[in-house]
């Protein structure tokens, strides 16, 4: 099978500054010492290589028809002529948002500015003027984070801007759990920062046969009302399309309450400080019975936030007496080591989707997001195949992949294109060089 698949991998480490490994610049240079295909247990199960189990990207995601109809009905009844501009403005704002500056960082910047002003002999300032100059400089150079208050009107704009893209990202995360663990049949789910309820709809699309309870938690009463209307087809009356959905503004207090799946999608970035995020992540993990799914924008800010949450769970010394099982990274990382991309590029993924067909919203789109799925149990339960973390660069006979590998490093791979079916976000079913003795395979260019 290894000969048939013929997946060849360069041994060079990826050099972030160059984008490709130096020895892989020549597209036809497939070097000896290739990586071996992981075919120990017949993982293809008679399927063609283009359908190997590491392929996880979904085709274009489409909202359930009942949800799309409800969203359209609500917008037709409430949207004004400026809705398109409001949607574009909110989308740009959410995508460009940074994390709040922590008080310690503000103090460090203030001390630096004060020292800089004092070193200038041309500035003779009183203490009051110095303080004013420092504050003025801080205001000009510091990102002004503001908490969004989702009123009825803003909730509707958010629905028009983010319902379909958020649904696509969460569907991709849930699909990975189902594809890699088909025996998992959750009965309960909790969604923190549930907003429009897209997580509930995505979970129902994946596990609707087994899920019996959906707990939606959001501080905004207007968002909860909107989510409930969407469940009822856009109206305030009638039977909900999905049974067993409950809404509340605060997290369940009892430490005994756990859910099979706990989700926070695009919500941790709405918290005002690192301390608040730490408290929420710890609470969500305590309430996790099997999987904790965290999703944020595919930006450096979103990726950094998720890595903090990942490390908090993995390194957390607090062990719940009710559930002492440790945590491990189910996806996307093939390891529990420090993220090798954290200082360079955001580890993000892309999912294509069909948007809600508004007048300004007709063409297929791509949702760029970052995710971390943490699970209770042992890391041996997860595949440790390398993950493709950037778009695949295609050439006539080869493709270039950037891989996050189980040894905690990035590698640049040159793969033969003839039977290659993997894309951005997929797992590549190969064993990296650190997993086996040096190969004596012959350079294919010599055969």
From TrEMBL:
Residues 1-19 form the signal peptide. SUPFAM superfamilies: S-adenosyl-L-methionine-dependent methyltransferases. It comes from the Eukaryota. One of its GO terms (cellular component) is mitochondrial matrix. It is found in: Mitochondrion matrix. GO terms for biological process: methylation; ribosomal small subunit biogenesis; translation. InterPro entries: Mt_RNA_Methyltransferase, Ribosomal_Rsm22-like, SAM-dependent_MTases_sf. It holds the Pfam family Rsm22. Keywords: 4Fe-4S, Iron, Iron-sulfur, Metal-binding, Methyltransferase, Mitochondrion, S-adenosyl-L-methionine, Signal, Transferase, Transit peptide. GO terms for molecular function: 4 iron, 4 sulfur cluster binding; metal ion binding; methyltransferase activity. Mitochondrial ribosome (mitoribosome) assembly factor. Binds at the interface of the head and body domains of the mitochondrial small ribosomal subunit (mt-SSU), occluding the mRNA channel and preventing compaction of the head domain towards the body. Probable inactive methyltransferase: retains the characteristic folding and ability to bind S-adenosyl-L-methionine, but it probably lost its methyltransferase activity. Associates with the mitochondrial ribosome (mitoribosome). Belongs to the methyltransferase superfamily. Rsm22 family. This is Ribosome assembly protein METTL17, mitochondrial. It comes from Homo sapiens. The lineage of its organism: Eukaryota, Metazoa, Chordata, Craniata, Vertebrata. The gene is METTL17.
